[in-house]
Structures are given as C-alpha cells and as structure tokens.
C-alpha cells in the first residue's frame, strides 16, 4: 500500500474494516514500518502522519476508516451498496482484509 501511494501521485488508499479499531491496527503496522525508515528518507516521502491518515508529499493519502455508511460515501463519492463495484475500476489491485471483530 505504501509503494502504491508513493508510485501513484494524488491517490487515495482506504483501509476499511468492520470497525475503526481493526483499521487502526493495520494503520499502526504501516506506521511502525515507516518508522524503521531512516528519518532523512522518511521526511522526503511523508508530509504528515496522524493515527488514521498519512499524507505523502506527492499528494497521495492512506486513510483508515470503519465500514460505516456515514463515512465511506464522503471518501469515495458513492453509496455503500455501490462499493462492491469498485473492484472493476483501474488501480483497484491492492486489498487488505482485516480480521472480524471478536
């Protein structure tokens, strides 16, 4: 996902799971990986990092969201029922599945 965001400027990558907690677990792993990159290199790639959003200097973003009908349409511009059709769009080649809440 990081590679995709860096190589494709001005893209939005979403991490969506049943709840925000599961999405943030994946985002925490991305943060942990980014923190292993030397600070000088990391500063050249990342504009800003928050717990649920990473903004890259090339205009791309990685955003962690819950599977909420209230939030997803704002991010992707479609109704939740139509989100199943997104896999037909160009660039829909990376997907992460979060474990279901226990």
How would you summarize this macromolecular structure in one to three sentences?
The protein has 102 residues and is α+β, with helices and mostly antiparallel strands.
Radius of gyration computed on alpha carbons: 14 Å
SSE order, one letter for each helix or strand: HEHHEEEH
Low-pLDDT parts are 78-82, 89-102
The largest pleated sheet is described as:
4 strands, mixed
- Taken together, the total number of domains comes to 1
Tell me what portion of residues adopts beta-strand conformation. 15-25%
Distance between the termini: 26 Å
Helix content: 25-40%
Q: Give the class from helix and strand content and strand pairing.
A: alpha+beta
Strand order of the largest sheet: 1-4-3-2
Can you count the helices? 4
| SS elements, strand count | 4
Q: Give average pLDDT, whole number.
A: 77
Q: What best-fitting shape do the alpha-carbon axes yield?
A: globular
Describe the protein.
With 102 residues, the chain is α+β, with helices and mostly antiparallel strands. The chain has one domain (2-68, 76-88). The chain is 34% helix and 20% strand. The chain has helices spanning 2-7, 20-36, 39-45, 72-76; strands at residues 12-17, 46-49, 53-56, 61-66. A 4-stranded mixed sheet has the order 1-4-3-2. Strand 2 and strand 3 form a beta hairpin. The longest helix is centred in the first third of the chain and has 17 residues, at 20-36. Residues 78-82 and 89-102 have low confidence and may be disordered.
